[in-house]
Inverse folding.
C-alpha cells in the first residue's frame, strides 16, 4: 500500500505503457469495444489507474480516480463527433521518465504520459492522430461544399417557398428531378462521411 501511495505522490503511477497487440484482450477496455460492429483496437496505453484506447472509430478512456481506487469511469469519444486537433508530443528532458502525447477532441484537451523508452510507438500514434485530424477537417469541408451545392440546386426550382400541396401537383418530371437531387445528395453525404480510420492506423503501425 505504501508503494502505491508513494508512486502516486511522485507521479510515477501516471506513466503509461503502450500495450502490444497480443495483450489487447487482457486489458479491461477490450470489454467495451464494439467488436460486433467491426470496431478494432490499434493502440492501448495503460497506466496504474487509466487505460487509453485508440480504435478505428473512437478514442476511449477508462478513467481511474487514482491507483488505489477501484472506481473507474468509461468515456467514449467517436471521431465522428470529436475530431482530433492540436496533436503534439512533448519530448523527455534529461531527468524525465516520460514523454507526453497531447491532443484535443472536440475542444477537450488530453495529455497522456508515456514511458520515454516507447517513443517510437508514441510517434506512430502522433502520426495517425494528425492524419485523422486532417481527414476529419476534409470531411467537414466537403460536407459544407455539398450542402451549398444542394441548396443552390434546390433553389433553382424554388421549391422551398412553395406549399406542399402545390409541389404535389407539379409535373412529374419536376418531382422526379427533385427526388433524384435529394437521393444523390444523401448518397454523396454517406460517401463523404467515412469515419472509419482503420486504414490510417494500419498505415502508421510499425511491424
Amino acid at each position: 500500500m505504501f508503494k502505491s501511495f508513494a508512486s502516486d505522490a511522485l507521479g510515477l503511477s501516471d506513466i503509461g505503457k503502450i500495450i502490444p497487440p497480443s495483450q489487447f484482450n487482457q486489458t479491461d477496455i477490450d470489454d467495451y469495444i464494439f467488436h460486433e460492429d467491426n470496431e478494432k483496437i490499434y493502440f492501448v496505453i495503460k497506466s496504474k489507474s487509466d487505460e487509453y484506447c485508440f480504435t478505428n472509430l473512437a478514442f476511449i478512456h477508462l478513467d481511474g480516480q487514482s491507483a488505489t481506487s477501484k472506481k473507474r469511469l468509461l468515456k467514449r469519444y467517436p471521431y465522428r463527433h470529436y475530431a482530433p486537433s492540436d496533436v503534439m508530443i512533448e519530448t523527455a528532458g534529461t531527468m524525465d521518465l516520460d514523454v507526453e502525447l497531447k491532443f484535443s477532441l472536440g475542444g477537450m484537451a488530453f495529455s497522456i504520459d508515456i514511458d520515454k523508452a516507447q517513443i517510437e510507438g508514441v510517434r506512430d500514434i502522433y502520426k495517425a492522430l494528425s492524419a485523422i485530424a486532417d481527414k476529419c477537417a476534409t470531411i467537414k469541408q466537403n460536407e459544407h461544399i455539398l450542402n451549398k451545392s444542394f441548396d443552390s440546386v434546390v433553389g433553382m426550382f424554388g421549391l422551398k417557398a412553395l406549399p406542399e400541396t402545390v409541389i404535389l401537383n407539379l409535373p412529374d418530371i419536376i418531382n422526379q428531378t427533385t427526388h433524384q437531387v435529394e437521393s444523390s445528395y444523401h448518397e454523396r453525404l454517406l460517401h463523404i462521411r467515412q469515419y472509419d480510420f482503420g486504414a490510417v492506423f494500419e498505415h502508421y503501425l510499425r511491424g
